[in-house]
Amino acid sequence: MGRNGWGNPVLFRVQGSAPVTITSVGEASHYLMHHWPEAGSRLHAKAQASCTFALKGERTPRAARRAFIRAANEAAPGIELQTWQSMVTLYPK
């Protein structure tokens, strides 16, 4: 695990797509910027900021991981999330 790795991977699937495994702050940041289904929400913005701060060394990768998971929970319609410590399945409204 590199400097920006966050230990337990986060696995999720956006409805109708292949599963995605995120293992680091850099991967999370990229996914939030380029592929996030609910871009522009409050928790999406917080997760992006948390990842940016973690990449700069101003926050821990663990804090960025928590923010990423909160954003995934907010984007509930169409996202299934597994954190390897717990499984949360989010159903479309």
Describe this structure as you would to a colleague:
With about 90 residues, the protein is an alpha+beta fold. The protein has one domain (about 5-90). It has helices at about 25-35, 40-55, 60-75, and strands spanning about 5-15, 20-25, 80, 85-90. Helix 1 packs antiparallel against helix 2 (about 40-55) and helix 2 (about 40-55) packs antiparallel against helix 3 (about 60-75). About 40% of the residues lie in helices and about 25% in strands.
Total E-strand runs: 4
Q: Percentage of helical residues?
A: 40-55%
Model regions low in confidence, pLDDT < 50 over at least 5 residues = 85-93
Distance between the terminal alpha carbons, to the nearest Å? Answer: 37 Å
Average pLDDT works out at 81
Radius of gyration: 12 Å
Strand content: 15-25%
Task: Please give the largest β-sheet.
Answer: 4 strands, antiparallel
Number of helices: 3
